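Anyone? Bumping this.
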Amino acid sequence: MVHHRGNNLHIVATSTALLTDHYELTMLEAALRSGAAHRRAVFEVFARRLPEGRRYGIVAGTGRVLDALENFRFGPEELDFLRERRIVDESTLRWLSEYRFSGDVYGYREGDVYFPGSPILVVEGTFAEAVMLETVILSILNHDCAIASAASRMTHAAGGRPLIEMGSRRTHEMAAVASARAAYIAGFATTSNLAAGRRYGIPTAGTAAHAFTLLHDSEADAFKAQLASLGPGTTLLVDTYDVEQAVRTAVELAGHRLGAVRIDSGDLALAAGEVRRLLDALGADQTRIVVTGDLDEHSIAALAVAPVDGYGVGTSLVTGSGAPTASLVYKLVARADESGELKPVAKRSVGKPSVGGRKHAYRRFDESGTAVAEIVCAHCDVPGPSDRPLLAQLVSGGEIVGREPLADARARHARAIAELPAPALQLSRGDVAIPTTLITA
Amino acid sequence: MVHHRGNNLHIVATSTALLTDHYELTMLEAALRSGAAHRRAVFEVFARRLPEGRRYGIVAGTGRVLDALENFRFGPEELDFLRERRIVDESTLRWLSEYRFSGDVYGYREGDVYFPGSPILVVEGTFAEAVMLETVILSILNHDCAIASAASRMTHAAGGRPLIEMGSRRTHEMAAVASARAAYIAGFATTSNLAAGRRYGIPTAGTAAHAFTLLHDSEADAFKAQLASLGPGTTLLVDTYDVEQAVRTAVELAGHRLGAVRIDSGDLALAAGEVRRLLDALGADQTRIVVTGDLDEHSIAALAVAPVDGYGVGTSLVTGSGAPTASLVYKLVARADESGELKPVAKRSVGKPSVGGRKHAYRRFDESGTAVAEIVCAHCDVPGPSDRPLLAQLVSGGEIVGREPLADARARHARAIAELPAPALQLSRGDVAIPTTLITA
C-alpha cells in the first residue's frame, strides 16, 4: 500500500496488482522460464471499431491508468495469495516482489477524440513488465472512454445548458466515481457523487428527493424545511403530488428568488412549458427549471425548444447510452528478436486489419482548422505542417511524467469537439467522422 | 478506515460514506432542522420491471451491501471534505461524525430469483439513518443483480458445461471484481480475475493469450515454453496463425495428455467440430475444447450441439448482456407521523403502481414444487402452507447478522432456478415467469 497525492488530498491506495487476469501471470512464468520475458515489447491500446453508429469516441481514464500503474505492486498480501493458490512458482513470485514498471508509456491526452485504429495508449517495456498491465489498463480505459463518449454527445445535445451527472445509483459504486470524472471531462457541469467531488475536485450538486416530501406531513412542510436549510436559491422538487399546486406552494414560500424547480416525471417538454408559464405568471421569472428522468442525448436534444435550464442525467450516462464498454484492445504490436531488434508482430485475423510495430499518430487539419484525417504511421516521427501530434509521453523510464489537472482535459475536450467537421456532431447513427489512415511503409 | 475480516483475509476497507449522492446529505440537514429526521422510516428496494423480455432476475450483491454498511462511517477525511465544500452545516457534521446505522435490514438472499415488485431489500430505521444509504445500496444491487441475471441465463444455456468469467477488461476495474462474484453465484465455474479470487475465494483460471505466441519466434517455441511451465494439462491457444497446424503442433509437443485447446475466433461451431475430429485422429481424445470470443447466452445455446467442453465469456457477462443495470429503486414506503405511528406513503405516479407500507414476501409453490406466484403483502406475517418466506433478517439493531458463505448463495441459485416453471428458462424474449401478487388489504 502506498500513499500518493492527487488534487492535494491524501488518498490511501491499495495495490492494483491483482486487478489482473490469471493468464497474465501464467504467461509471465512461462516466459521467464523460456527467457523471452525480457524481450523488449510494444503493446498498443486501440479500438477496431466504434460502437455502432457512433461518429467519434472520447479518451478518458488515462489519468486513472497512471494512478493504477503507480500502485501496481505485489506486496506480501498479493504474493501470499498467489503462493497459496499456486498460481505461479517461487522464482516468479520473487520477480513479482520486485516488480516496478520501468518502461515508457505514450498516449492520447484525456478529452481528445479518437477513431478506429487510434493508438490511444502505447506501452513499451520488457514483455514481462508490460504484459501484466493489460487488464487493469483496459478495464479503466474501456469504462471511462465509454462513459465520456456518451457524455460528449449529451453535452453537445444540451447546447450550453448545464448537465448534472446523477447516475451513481445505476452502476457499480466505484464505477460511479469514475463515471462522474469521465462526464466532467466531456463537459458535464456537476455530479451528484460526493466521492468524485472529494477524489477529483468535481463540483457536486443536489437538493432533495421525493422521499423528503413524503417524509413530511405536507408538501408545504417539506418545502419550508428545505428552504429553511438551503435558502431560497435551492431547487424544489415539484412532481411528488401535483405539479401546478407544488409550483404555487413553492413560489408562495420561497418568493421570487426561488432558485429552481425540478420536474422528474411525465412529459417533460409539456410540463416545462406549463411550469414556465406558471412561474412567469407568479412573478418568478428568474426561477430556473431543471428536468430529470431517464434522459439520454436524444431526449435532451428533443427538449432544446422547451424552456428548460438544466438537465440531470443518470442511467444512460453511466451505461454509455447503449455502449457500456469501448471495445478497446491491448495488443502486442512489436517485440525484439534474439538479436534485440524490434520486429512487428500480428495475429492472423480475418476481418481484423492491424498494423504491427510502434506507431506515431497525428490529426490532420484543413486550412479552416477542421480535422480531416487521423494519420497513424509506423515511420513518420515528424508531423506534416497541418498535423498535430496526438501522443504525449506519460511515463518515462517508469517515472510518471504525464499527469495534468482535470480542467485541462475538460478544456481539451471542448477544443477537440470544436475542430470536428459538422456531421461528427449529429446524434443519428452515422459513419466515423474522419478516416483513419494507416501508413505502414 | 476500519479493518474487517472476510473469507479469513484481512482487507483494508476505506469508508463507503461518500459513495453517496449530494442530495442525501442536504435532505439530512433539512430534516434534522425540521425535526422529521428522527421519524421512523421504511425504505424498500424493488424493480418496477425486469429488462425487456427477461423472465426472471437474480439477486446478488447483498453480501457486498453488508460490507458497505459496515464501512459507512464519516471519519475526519470525509467530514473535512463536507466542511470545506460547505455541503452541510456544523450540526449536521456532528451528527454524521457519530453516524452508525442502528436499524434493521431484511432482504432476499443472494442467488434467489426475483420479479417485478419483489422487495429485495427492506431498510428500517430513522429517516436520517436510512436515507443516506440509498446510493451505495442501489449502486451495489443494480450492478450485481444485472450481472447475475445475465450470468444465470448463460449458465442455463451452457447446460452443465463449465463457464469461465473473463470479462474484467471490459468493465470498470472494481466492477470486474464484483462481476466475477455475481457470475460465480449464478453458476459460473471460475473467473480470470485474481482480485476476485483473493477477495471472495472464487477459483481462478487462465493460461495464455495470443501475445504469448507472438512473443516467441515460432508457435512451437511458445507451446514448448507454456508446457514446460504449466505441464501438459494446460490449455493451448490454437488460433494465432493456423488452427489445424497449431493443433498438430500442440499434440506433437504435449502428447495425448494435453489438457485442452482454446479457439478464440472464427466460426466456433465449425472450428470446434474440425478440431475435435483432428484431436481424435491424433489420439488426443481426452483433450478438451474451450471456446471464447464474444459469446453470450444465445451463442452459447447455439453451440450446444458442437463438441465444446467449456466456454469463456467476457463482454456480454460484465455488461449484463444488454441490460447493464437492474432498474432497482430505493423508495420510502412508510414513515411515522407525529404520534409515532407508521403510515404508508407513496408518490403519485402515473403508470408506476406501488404499495405503501412494510411488506412480507413469499414464493408460492404448486403440489409438484414448481413456483407459481410471488406474494407480496402488507399484513401477512404468517406464510401459507405452500409458501416459502423470502425475506431474511440481515441487520438487527445495527448489527450485521446475515452474512453467509458465497457457496450458499451459489447453491441457492441452482435450487431457485430448478423451482421455476419451464418457460422461465427460455432465452427468447418473454413474459415474467410467475406473477407478483400484491395484497394490500
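Late reply, but here is one note on the structure posted above: Chain A has two domains: 2-132+327-439, 159-322.
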